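Protocol step 4 of 6: structure prediction from sequence.
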Amino acid sequence: MKKTAQLTLLESTIKELGYTLRYEKGNFLGGDCRLKEDNVVVVNKFLPLEGKIYTLALVISKINPPGLPAETGKLIDSLVDRNLFNRDNRG
């Protein structure tokens, strides 16, 4: 699966989970948060494509929703298992 297709799949999964997805600039990688009553996922818009994909996969794995489609689950597992970033030092 191409990287752009992976990103599109993860973006649609985030939205299906009821989260608002925002790409913002700043000195951060990204993650999920709650603003008032809204669930929001924020991703650094200056990350390379692989960084955006990994950030979204990490957020979805953290949410751990039941009934995730097999294709999405396999993609997330493969990305998170690679441990591209040291999750203990992400803050």
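Step 5 (inspection) to follow. The chain has a mean pLDDT of 84.
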